[in-house]
């Protein structure tokens, strides 16, 4: 059976099993601590097939299944791994989400080696973890799910630690250096490029990358400031492009350097959480194609994202949240516009959400988005995107349920 | 002067409702440490310190609810019980920590700490748990 047909069945079966299994807490088998979760999401939109076949109908557009096991030896070395099976609109897969050896020499210094989660801002590492937040979806532009494959993990080394700063609080750091998976033509990112432009890409070799995440717990009780940056050094995207209407010829985006940078603030007070984040991306690459002559065409693309979020834990079971998120894929106004000049490269995403704990292991979430602008549709979310003239305001409603143990 | 400072410290502790009134930290009798700082308590509770300074794995046990649990978390980690639970879930599902032993009540936490070498937990102040070592905060 093809993967794209088998996987949803596996995930649904896993979800059913998870419902039953989750009646208990974590399992411990011969010292191996086992945890897992399963999620299903249904969504609908009024104007776009936004993340699935959601236009004017309900689509079961996201299914996720996570299972991990960890063992700690008496010498202090911890070994663990997590599998992640997912179907996200047209993309599905089963991946090793993290798998590493971990040893903490002291609170100030530890080292993980293997596949490690890559931190990005406040919630990048936890973007799959419905069980730790009110929203079903983090701000859609800031934490785009279609980029999960290239923003989620690094194969390499992860030094980390926590340093006391006396009266100035404490500083947690987590660095990473290594490589990341190569994206194929079936990935949402490259599928999106294929439809939206005159370029059709079949492979994205991410290359080597390095970064650091700094989290300062300030002297103000509940206030945390975070800075994170990841640089991808030498990516290569290959495919074909049609420049000037002369037909499709091979094209390479070579020497691709991408910087993901974020600054974030999070403040928690009693049952309230306030968060704000700013992210800027910079892509530099050389466009190489016979259609462009012998000299590579150097390209620079900047992208800007920011949001404000508030959540309130109204009762032990009920959490409420609201956010306003903004994106601009052409802050320097150097990208071509599609139709409405003000809204084709920007987005405003206003969301309200409620999360209800049916049990201590079973969550139900309801979420409503009002989105203005086509920026996050442009980026591969709508495979039936009509381009110029497309409706720039739309609504997106999500119901999601998650079990975890 | 020394007596005055001691009285002042005790008075402050009483007025501020300090941690010593709410809970005490306990460890397996074989643990060499006799005391710990508030910063060390925070590091242990948040999974940043996973071994004893004198050697050996540190095995954290926590209560699942209750006023002692709330007090310890608020005092030493600046987190509510709900935030603490989510913090640990995040660690577990991102490969950065192993969930602490979950104890439904103080008897269970004492029983776990007493039988598990390297174990660390907490109980209400004033109780006299048998088979474990009480650590002071310095």
List the helices and strands and how they pair.
The complex is a heterodimer of chains A (405) and B (138).
Chain A: H1 3-21, E1 27-29, E2 32-45, E3 59-72, E4 78-88, E5 91-106, E6 109-117, H2 148-151, E7 153-164, E8 170-179, E9 182-184, H3 188-196, E10 199-205, E11 208-217, E12 223-241, E13 249-269, E14 272-288, E15 297-313, E16 318-328, E17 346-359, E18 362-372, H4 375-378, E19 393-404
Antiparallel strand pairs in A: 1-2, 2-3, 2-19, 3-4, 4-5, 5-6, 6-7, 7-8, 8-11, 9-10, 10-12, 11-12, 12-13, 13-14, 14-15, 15-16, 16-17, 17-18, 18-19
Chain B: H1 2-16, E1 23-27, E2 35-36, H2 38-45, E3 59-63, H3 67-77, H4 81-93, E4 101-103, H5 106-115, E5 119-124, E6 133-137
Parallel strand pairs in B: 2-6, 3-4, 3-5
Antiparallel strand pairs in B: 1-5, 1-6
Question: Which properties best describe this structure?
Answer:
heterodimer, A: mainly beta, 16-stranded antiparallel barrel, 4 helices, globular, B: 138 residues, alpha/beta, 6 strands, 19% strand
3D architecture notes:
The complex is a heterodimer of chains A (about 400) and B (about 140). With about 400 residues, chain A is mainly β. Chain A has one domain (about 40-60, about 95-405): Porin (Beta Barrel), CATH 2.40.160. Chain A is about 10% helix and about 55% strand. Chain A contains four helices and 19 strands. Chain A has a 16-stranded antiparallel beta barrel with strand order 2-3-4-5-6-7-8-11-12-13-14-15-16-17-18-19. Chain B has about 140 residues and is α/β, with parallel strands linked by helices. In chain B, about 40% of the residues lie in helices and about 20% in strands. Chain B has a six-stranded mixed β-sheet. The longest helix of chain B has 15 residues, at about 1-15. The interface of A and B includes residues 35, 102, 117, 161 and 222 of A.
């Amino acid at each position: 059976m093809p993967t794209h047909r088998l996987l949803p069945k596996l995930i649904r079966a896993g979800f059913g099993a998870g419902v039953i299994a989750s009646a208990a807490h974590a399992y411990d088998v011969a010292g191996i601590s086992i945890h897992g979760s399963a999620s299903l999401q249904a969504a609908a939109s009024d104007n776009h097939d936004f993340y699935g076949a959601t236009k004017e109908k309900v689509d079961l557009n996201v299914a996720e299944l996570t299972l991990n096991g960890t063992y700690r030896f008496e010498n202090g070395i911890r070994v663990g791994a997590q599998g992640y099976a997912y179907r996200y609109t047209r993309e599905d897969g089963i991946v090793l989400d993290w798998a590493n050896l971990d040893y903490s020499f002291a609170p100030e210094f530890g080292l993980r080696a293997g596949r490690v989660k890559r931190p990005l801002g406040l919630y990048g590492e936890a973007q799959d973890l419905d069980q730790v937040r009110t929203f079903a979806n983090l701000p859609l532009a800031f934490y785009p799910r279609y980029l999960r494959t290239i923003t989620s993990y690094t194969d390499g080394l992860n030094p980390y630690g926590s340093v006391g700063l006396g009266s100035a609080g404490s500083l947690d750091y987590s660095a990473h250096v290594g490589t990341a998976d190569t994206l194929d033509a079936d990935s949402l990112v490259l599928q999106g490029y294929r439809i939206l432009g005159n370029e059709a890409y079949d492979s994205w070799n991410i290359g080597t990358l390095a970064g650091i995440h700094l989290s300062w717990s300030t002297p103000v009780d509940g206030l945390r400031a975070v800075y994170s940056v990841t640089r991808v050094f030498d990516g290569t995207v290959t495919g074909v492009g049609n420049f000037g209407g002369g037909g499709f010829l091979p094209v390479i985006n070579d020497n691709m350097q991408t910087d993901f940078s974020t600054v974030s603030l999070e403040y928690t007070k009693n049952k309230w959480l306030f968060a704000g984040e700013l992210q800027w991306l910079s892509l530099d690459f050389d466009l190489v194609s016979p259609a462009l002559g012998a000299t590579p065409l150097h390209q620079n693309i900047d992208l800007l994202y920011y949001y404000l979020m508030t959540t309130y834990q109204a009762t032990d079971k009920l959490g409420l949240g609201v956010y306003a998120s903004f994106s601009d894929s052409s802050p320097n106004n150097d990208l071509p516009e599609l139709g409405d000049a003000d809204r084709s490269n920007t987005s405003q995403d206003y969301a309200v959400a409620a999360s209800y704990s049916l049990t201590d292991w079973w969550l139900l979430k309801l979420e409503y988005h009002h989105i203005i602008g086509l920026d996050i549709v442009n980026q591969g979310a709508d495979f039936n995107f009509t381009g110029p003239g497309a409706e720039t305001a739309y609504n997106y409603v999500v119901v999601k349920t998650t079990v975890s143990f | 002067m020394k007596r005055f400072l001691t009285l002042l410290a005790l008075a402050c502790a009483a007025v501020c409702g300090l941690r010593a009134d709410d809970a005490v930290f306990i460890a397996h009798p074989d643990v060499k440490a006799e005391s710990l700082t508030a910063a060390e308590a925070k590091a242990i509770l948040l999974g940043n310190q996973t071994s004893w300074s004198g050697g050996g794995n540190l095995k954290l046990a926590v209560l699942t609810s209750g006023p002692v649990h709330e007090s310890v978390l608020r005092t030493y980690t600046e987190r509510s019980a709900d935030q603490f639970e989510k913090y640990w879930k995040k660690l577990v599902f991102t490969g950065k920590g192993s969930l602490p032993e979950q104890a439904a009540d103080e008897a269970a936490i004492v029983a776990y700490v007493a039988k598990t070498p390297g174990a660390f937990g907490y109980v209400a102040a004033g109780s006299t748990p048998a088979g474990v070592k009480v650590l002071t905060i310095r």
